[in-house]
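**Sequence, C-alpha cells**
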Amino acid sequence: MKIAIGNDHAGTEYKIAVVDLLKSMNIEVINHGTDSNDSVDYPDFVHPVAKDVEEGTVDFGIIICGSGNGASITANKHQKVRSALCWTKEIVELARQHNNANILSLPARYIALPQALDMVKTFLETDFEGGRHERRVEKIPC
C-alpha cells in the first residue's frame, strides 16, 4: 500500500507521528507536507496529495491542517477525490463505508494525537460497502 500525506504548519507534529505509524505498518509514504512549524499555505501541500490520489499513483491520501476544512476543500476540487473531514473514529468508518473516501482530512487543532492515529488505522482498515452507496458515490463528480 502507498499513502500520500500533506500538511501545513499546524499539522507537522501529527504528520510526523502518522508517517511513523504508517511505516511501522510497512506502508510506503509519499511526504508532500512541510516538516516545519513556520507558517505556510496549505493548498501548496494538499494539491500534490490530491493529484496523487486522482492519478492513482497512491492508494489513499491523508491531509492535516488546523481545522481540516481548508485542506479538505482544496482536495475536493480534484476529480476522483473524495476527501472526508473527520473528527471521530465513527465518522471515519462511515466516510469509508458509505462515501468511499479516499483522502482523510484531520483537524490537528481539534483532536488529540492518539485519536488521530486511531482514526488513521480505522481509515485504512475500513472497506467501502458498495451496494446502494455505489450509486450515490457515482453521482458525486460534476
Summary: The longest strand covers residues 2-7.
